[in-house]
Design goal:
Length: about 150
């Protein structure tokens, strides 16, 4: 894994495929690790469960986080990410179908770096993902020494 890995936290297989397709169509070639629920995302980030023993010095460049997840919801995942020194600086972009004000406020108040409502139209969605990739993977300067 490289330092430019993307962690995609998405339980809907169609949205997962659409996101990966949009990334590839936008020429984002970074490795994408998919977690299909909040618990799996936390296992990946903290080296527990099926990811026990993973090198935690190599954290993802960005987390694309859905909110409506099984086991542990996205806002709880975000709280856990922000509450741990090893992960607190990882950029987290909420990528969700929810346009509810309580989710928007909840995401930002828990430390989300950005909140993107998924467009239903594939072309619009691809453009949104392309913009995310360009900014967070190419333009944004990552803080030094993210990890343990």
């Amino acid at each position: 894994m490289t330092s430019k890995t993307i962690l995609l936290v998405e339980d809907n297989p169609d949205d997962e495929a659409l996101t990966i397709r949009a990334l590839r169509k936008s020429h984002v070639s970074n490795e994408v690790v998919v977690a299909r629920d909040g618990a799996e995302a936390l296992d990946f980030l903290f080296g527990t469960g099926k990811y026990e023993g993973r090198d935690l010095s190599e954290q993802p460049q960005i987390v694309l986080l859905d909110l409506k997840l099984p086991k542990i919801d996205g806002l709880q995942v975000l709280e856990r990410i922000r509450s741990d020194k090893r992960t607190e600086l990882i950029p987290v972009v909420i990528l969700t179908t929810s346009k509810e004000e309580k989710d928007l406020i909840g995401g930002y108040s828990r430390g989300a770096n950005s909140y993107v409502a998924k467009p239903v139209d594939f072309v619009e969605f691809t453009e949104a993902v392309k913009s995310l990739g360009m900014y967070w993977l190419l333009i944004n300067e990552r803080p030094p020494n993210i990890g343990p």
